[in-house]
């Protein structure tokens, strides 16, 4: 998937370290036309997570995660229970914040974020209004 990146795009070849002290790597690519009209971002996230949990705010786009590492957990909004995913998941236009949790094992995700459908207004708790 990453081979289809558009090298003339400002974000092409973008390599951003997340928590360099703990060895997390994030690499992002923007696909070439015509896929750039449907896909905002192709990326991989790999390495030891700097945090036990990561909160993702509501967003007006879908997210596909293919997991190649240890299982991860997702908690939606203020729910008490988490759901565990071993192979990956598709998150379609979340209306609440999502909390991603992982084990201390290295993370290996390949992901695709679809083009958004517009802004999602949220309240103080991160829920869509």
Provide a descriptive summary of the structure in words.
The protein has one domain (2-114): Jelly Rolls. The strands form two sheets. Strands 1-2-3-10-5-8 form a six-stranded antiparallel beta sheet, with no helix packed on it. Strands 4-9-6-7 form a four-stranded antiparallel beta sheet, with no helix packed on it. It has strands spanning 14-18, 24-29, 39-47, 53-56, 63-67, 72-76, 83-85, 88-91, 98-102, 107-114. It has 129 residues and is mostly beta strands. β6 and β7 form a beta hairpin. It is globular and about 40 Å long.
What labels would you give this structure?
Jelly Rolls; mainly beta; 10 strands; four-stranded antiparallel β-sheet; six-stranded antiparallel β-sheet; 129 residues
List the helices and strands and how they pair.
Blueprint: E1 14-18, E2 24-29, E3 39-47, E4 53-56, E5 63-67, E6 72-76, E7 83-85, E8 88-91, E9 98-102, E10 107-114
**CATH superfamily descriptor:** Jelly Rolls
Per the principal axes of the C-alpha atoms, what is the gross shape? globular
Count of distinct structural domains: 1
Please describe the biggest sheet, giving its number of strands, its sense, and whether it closes into a barrel: 6 strands, antiparallel
User: What share of residues is helical?
Assistant: under 10%
Tell me what portion of residues adopts beta-strand conformation: 35-45%
CATH architecture label name: Sandwich
Structural class: mainly beta
- CATH fold group: Jelly Rolls
* Integer average pLDDT: 76
**How is the largest sheet built, in terms of strand order?**
1-2-3-10-5-8
C-alpha termini separation: 35 Å
In DSSP terms (H or I, runs of 4 or more residues), the helix count works out at 0
Number of strands: 10
């Amino acid at each position: 998937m990453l081979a289809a990146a558009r090298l003339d795009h400002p974000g092409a070849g973008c390599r951003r370290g997340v928590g360099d002290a703990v060895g997390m790597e994030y690499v992002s690519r923007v696909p070439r036309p015509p896929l750039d009209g449907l896909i905002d971002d192709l990326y991989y996230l790999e390495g030891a997570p700097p945090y036990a949990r990561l909160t993702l705010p509501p967003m007006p786009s879908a997210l596909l995660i293919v997991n190649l590492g240890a299982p991860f957990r997702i908690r939606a909004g203020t729910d008490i229970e988490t759901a565990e995913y071993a192979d990956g998941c598709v998150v379609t236009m979340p209306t609440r914040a999502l909390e991603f949790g992982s084990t201390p094992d290295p993370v290996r995700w390949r992901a695709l974020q679809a083009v958004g459908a517009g802004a999602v207004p949220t309240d103080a708790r991160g829920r869509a209004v």
